[in-house]
Amino acid sequence: MPADPRNESGDAPATRDQSRIPYQLPQPTAMMPDIFLGQVLDLDADEQSWVPQAEGVWFKPLILSVSQGYYVNILRVRSSGILSRHRHSGPVHAFTLRGRWHYLEHDWVATAGDYAFEPPGETHTLVVPEGVEEMATLFHVTGGYTYVDPHGKALGYEDVFTKLENVRRHYERIGLGAGYADRFIR
Ligand code: FE
Q: What is the rounded CA–CA span in Å between residue 170 and residue 175?
């Protein structure tokens, strides 16, 4: 008896729904592994994931892309006042999660739920206003930025590599080992 060309649902094989079938081929050679970090927006969980950066300032790394020169992190500030004045070489995307902050050079104030784009080339001075107990903002930072005085004189710099060094030092210090930082590197 010839096989019935129809499947159990009665559809002809040619029209069988393929939408639930995973991709069947190998991923491309040299493709980087993905990253999955659960509950990163739960800002009050997993205190040791916050890397100290300065007095009252921490960041939580999500990805440190040494291959493309960008990083994504959540910055947490628990002090008010001037944080830093810096000049960006690449674009920044900022999603405010908690608290308030602004730049001396702009008249907007970022609050939870707000998005800001910082164009490459811009120099600005980050302020957390008085009365804000905690500010948390997810920053996607491409390139680096240079710390400058009010007249643009370079005082220091930050980029994915200085971030990585900071992260490695943190995990070494808390006993997980510097290699723990590898999970963020792509
Ligand atoms: Fe900035």
A: 9
Could you tell me if residue 33 is inside a domain? Answer: no
CA of 15 to the centre of ligand 1 (A): 53
Could you tell me if 73 and 35 are in contact, meaning their C-beta atoms sit under 8 angstroms apart? no
Cβ-Cβ contacts under 8 Å for 59 (sequence gap 6 or more): 50, 51, 53, 73, 74, 75, 76, 163, 166
Residues 17-67: pLDDT tens digits? 999 999 999 999 999 999 999 999 999 999 999 999 999 999 999 999 999
Measured in angstroms, how far is the CA atom of residue 118 from the centroid of ligand 1?
7
What's the CATH number where 173 sits?
A: 2.60.120.10
CA of residue 148 to ligand 1 center, whole Å: 12
